[in-house]
Amino acid sequence: MKKISILISTVSSLFIFSQVTLVKDINPGTSNSNPGLTIEYNGSLYFKASDGTNGTELWKSDGTTSGTVMVSDYRSGSASFNPQQFVVFDNKLFFQGNDGTNGAEVYTYDGTTISLFADLKTGSGSSVPQNFEVIGSNLYFKAQEATSTNNKIYKTDGTAAPTVIDPTYNIAFGIEKLGTDLILSASPSNSYQLYKCDGTTYTLIKTINPSGSASPTNFYSDGNKVYFSADDGTNGKELWATDGTSAGTAMIKDISSSPGADSSPNHFFSFNGKIYFSANDGTNGTELWVTDGTDAGTSMLKDINVGSGNSNPSDFFAYNGKLYFTANDTTNGNELWETDGTNAGTKLFLDINPGSASSSPTDLILFNGEVFLNTNDGTVGKEFYKIDSSVLGTADGIAKQTSFYPNPSNGKLFSNAKKGFIYQVYDVKGALLKSGKSTAGNLNLNLPDGIYILKYTIGEKSAATKIVIKNK
Q1: pLDDT digits (tens, 9 = 90+) for 343-384
Q2: Which residues form a coiled coil (predicted)?
């Protein structure tokens, strides 16, 4: 029975693997183009990538090979413009770029032209703008002031030059919006505490660490609260949340088993009413955790890298009732996992780079009904791929409600699918052998003896099942 289970698992994995398609080998051969930070703008996907000749520049894609092109070699030659920190604002793409003359500054792209929007630290110096947030008709971001390396919050309406909000406050780490406010780690001196900013004034929310810097960081908003990591001077860097008020700011749980040690919660993501994140309890390494906002409702969902090793879950992406993320169980490398919110339902979804090597998938995004990502299958380097969205979040309901019989069969199959279905048949290597539409719910496959994967689509939902053909 164990051998059969392993075979079914392997065949299913091969079926799913066949649904991962290289969109474009941007840096031809085995070298990496390292695409990243994908964002949708003006009907296309935009990201940074290097073709090995022009450095890291701005690219765009319509989801096809021919439609995946470099927007501009803005920093000409092999040097990199290195666009990053993308955000859509005022019908433009705002981002950080470095043209080699003005340093790392604020740029825009209007669908036609890349332009320097603001050279905050004039000359070759870099203000390094980052953490762009849109609130109402204004864009906020963190950047170094003109005369020092201290970070300030800047504000612009997209037409006027950015201005500093109250230069007496220095900003550390990221920023996050909650309603009409920014939640951030700020200091008028050297002690960083939890503040909010309404676009004009900074207000202390809470002095989390009375004896030093609380250093709140890793901010994430679910729309009602902001979750973050902070150090109260006693418990180490632990899980906190705020609703923007002092009374509504508290540590949720001291996760680390060692007094004063850091659990360092990070990579927060909201899914089905709970927050999923990575944390280290001091025993099991950095693993997948979940919280409902209470101490009792905060627990490790699964020890993916069993023991004290780290699986380092990150890059969360929700689709069709499942939460996808990257993690490393040391057996399969850093690959794509899925969870339905249960321990049993948390499992390896796709080993893109088979074996212990890592595909390290990042930047999953839904675009025109397909899921795009940046990953490395072990043959062409880290490049721009897509996954057939029908294999993501495959509806358990369809699989439970639909049956094919007899199985094994001689290729003549019957089903209880009253409405008929569209089907594809794959061999165990993932090659498509047959496809078509069954209006009566029956099939006559006429295939040699063997094991096959039958994928079927009813309405807008798809599922797959193993079938065995025995002609005698």
Answers
A1: 999 999 988 888 899 999 999 998 888 899 999 999 999 999
A2: none
Render pLDDT for 234-276 as a digit per residue (tens, 0 to 9): 999 999 999 999 999 999 999 998 888 999 999 999 999 999 9
Residue 162 sits in which domain range?
16-394
Q: How far apart are CA 266 and CA 281, in angstroms?
A: 13
Let me know whether 407 and 381 are in one domain: no
Looking at the domain assignment, is residue 2 inside a domain?
Answer: no
Q: Are 470 and 448 in contact (CB under 8 A)?
A: no
For residues 368 and 434, state if they share a domain.
Answer: no
Nearest C-alpha neighbor of 223 from the set 181, 264, 255 = 181
Distance (Å, rounded) from C-alpha 105 to C-alpha 95? 8
Measured CA to CA, the distance from residue 147 to residue 197 in angstroms comes to 23
| Contact between 360 and 376 (Cβ < 8 Å) | yes
Indicate the pTM of the whole model.
0.81
Domain boundary residue among 360, 394, 428? 394
String of DSSP letters for 233-293: SSS-EEEEEESSSSTTEEEEE---SSTT-----EEEEEETTEEEEEEE-SSS-EEEEEESS
283 token code pair: 């025993």
CATH code of residue 456: 2.60.40.3080
DSSP code of residue 121: S
